[in-house]
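#structure-requests
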Amino acid sequence: MKRMLLLTAAACLLATASFAQRVRVVHASPDAPPVDIYVDGQLALTGIPFGEYTDYVDLPGGQRLFAVFVAGTNTRVADVPAFLSTAVDYTVVAMGFAGGGKTPSFRLMLLVDANTEPLEGFAKVRVIHAAPSAPAVDIYWTKPFLALRGQLPVLTSVPFGAASNYLTVPTGKAAQYQARVAVAGTQTVAIDSGRLVLNSQEVRTIIAVDNAGGGAPFSAIVLRDRN
């Protein structure tokens, strides 16, 4: 279940803005506790646990500073300055390991979301590698449960912290798919989306993540970007 609390701080930011951008946050750091998100020093989103994400929140454009704190404390985990362009959707992904000196270390990744409506009869899908325990991966996009033998990946050697471009795929009654993430150069599946049903003009983002605490079994968060 999505959890999001938009506080008066964000509303105050909007009060002086003639144009607002939409921003959402995904907590994909497997060993980090629930987090609060501050925007320009003001609390905007609170109590986001690992594996969860917020709805889009309207924020004013221009130079913004996003900061991550351990929920309910003054412990600052990370921050990232970002320039938000007018009328653009963004996803901020908290990823990497937060403690113990493990690598890759905690970071925030800011992504521009292409939520323009696909043509009738098509959908768009994007994949993000946010599983810090997984090596570089190949991504397969096939009909459900089709054997990978003889199939070619749609993306190869995707490193941690990388996001693919959007893949445009046909929809319709027979348009069901399965995304599988394999160790690069092999067909050893680490993450399996199971059956995915995409409807016309939908946009989705699939984020590969570790298990809570880090390591396997890996899983995926599917974001409903549009429709």
